[in-house]
Amino acid sequence: MNRxxxxxxxxxxxxxxxxxxxxxxxxPADVYARYLRRRGRDVLFxxxxxxxxxxxxxxxxxxxxxxxxxxxxxxxxQADLARRFQLSFDHFGRTSSAQNADLTRHFxxxxxxxxxxxxxxxxxxxxxxxxxxxxxxxVVGTCPRCGYEAARGDQCESCTRVLDPTDLIAPRSAIxxxxxxxxxxxxxxxxxxxxxxxRLRSWITSHDEWPPLVTSIALKWLNEGLRDRCITxxxxxxxxxxxVGLEGKVFYVxxxxxxxxxxxxxxxxxxxxxxxxRSWWLEAEDVRYVQFMAKDNxxxxxxxxxxxxxGSGEPWKMVDFVKGFSWLNYYGGKFxxxxxxGVFMDHALELLxxxxxxYYLIANAPESxxxxxTWEHFQAVVNKDLADTLGNFVNRTLRLAxxxxxxxxxxxxxxxxxxxxxxxxxxxxxxxxxxFLEQLxxxxxxxxxRAIWTAGNVYVTRAAPWTAFKTDVLRAxxxxxxxxxxxxxxxxxxxxxxxxxxxxxxxxxxxxxGATWPESLEDAISFLPAGHVLAAAPDMxxxxxxxxxxxxxxxxxxxxxxxxxxxxxxx
Length: 571
Known about the structure:
Blueprint lengths: L2 E6 L10 H20 L3 E8 L4 H10 L3 H18 L6 E4 L3 H16 L3 E11 L4 E2 L5 E4 L8 E2 L16 E5 L8 E10 L5 H9 L6 H12 L5 E2 L1 E2 L16 E2 L1 H20 L14 E8 L3 H15 L8 E5 L2 E3 L14 H7 L2 H10 L7 E3 L1 H30 L12 H22 L3 H22 L1 H7 L1 H22 L4 H10 L12 H4 L22 H10 L15
Parallel strand pairs: 1-2, 1-13, 2-3, 13-14, 15-16
Antiparallel strand pairs: 4-5, 4-9, 6-7, 6-8, 9-10, 11-12
């Protein structure tokens, strides 16, 4: 399929996201989208801030702002950080948009018409001290399953179990901390997921290409018994429910947030004037749809959102591939905003440019198991792979061309056995790199990219043009010409992962135009003709990180205490 729809889990509006949030959805989605565009595919890459629900109200209250104004400001901050991290969203929308509100009400109406909505009287937590119902995250307590003491009323982020506030042990108000809570009756809408179990199971098991992490979590939910889900809440901030008897209620954030993918696509179409967003979602049989998310979001994208689509009775696009990630931890513990523990996106960019972080995170993506960020490992990877391998090859090749061949691609000499061996090696490596990116195996893809860079260093070390220049100028010219073409090739292949460095490299060799993906490696290493004028060699492409910096950064981001609850993440 030439058209590919890519969505990243929606980052929640409250606060700057940490490196675990970045590598758990947005960054790998960007690498995949960039790769597909390089291969000539028609890609639509959509994301948005997830703005409804209790955390937004609580955060706005703490900031002393109206919740709508708080969300507007935070969306701007997150959009700017996404841009600075080179995340190439076609649109970064908002779930508070008018488009998403219309679509949320549309789905509710269709579910009702199809018999998948039911109004029920429920037992809700009420706080006399706060003078209001306390749905979802307004209630904090102990998880009845794993004993985690900071579980929220919608989900325990320790064991990922979905909860209702009334499930919690020793519940307390997240607003006031009051334990003076009552259970009162309230009318709400329920999505009858239990009627869709067989359809969901059949659909999930039909995707045997999905990662085991994704399938196991989805089937675990079904095997434990899928309950009907309440999709409305006693809140003011959200999409209002248009139903007699339910005035003053809004739709549950976990109902309207996934619909936000469609809403953001509609925003994109309105911004682009005349683009048909529905062709990506309705009867879109020519579209491959790929979702990226961390493991705590898997149930909502394999059970909740598909229930909404199936139950609507309309031909909306179902996801074709779900790429789930485990968690990136910080020295064995969770990132924490409150205790300033771990590295967040804004602070990361204060320390180093985006490409340092992009490469490290993709090369160490937590694809099957949880993994740890440590400064020592970060330093080792950056210094060895980026500075010593890629950076050293690019800089010494360009310096040699500038000093020995007057800043031009040299003429003379013919490819020999070393070039033939190089092409054979690159052919195998590049095709493996492509295969792993197609399969969304990011760590393996990064490993092949590193091996491609290494192949260039091995070649130029064996050929030793700085020595050959003294005795065989033509041999030296052939080697430098091949090496300059390798520089261009490495920039093209590296662009999905390190786009800023890629652009700098292409600029240095004067090859911004015609930088297409290599279909023939033999052609790729002879693309730049003899006499082609090079630009000035760039400053150091990647610098090494010092032990002193690592010590300072580790102290700075150690935090004041172990986190009591997870930092805000993504939907």
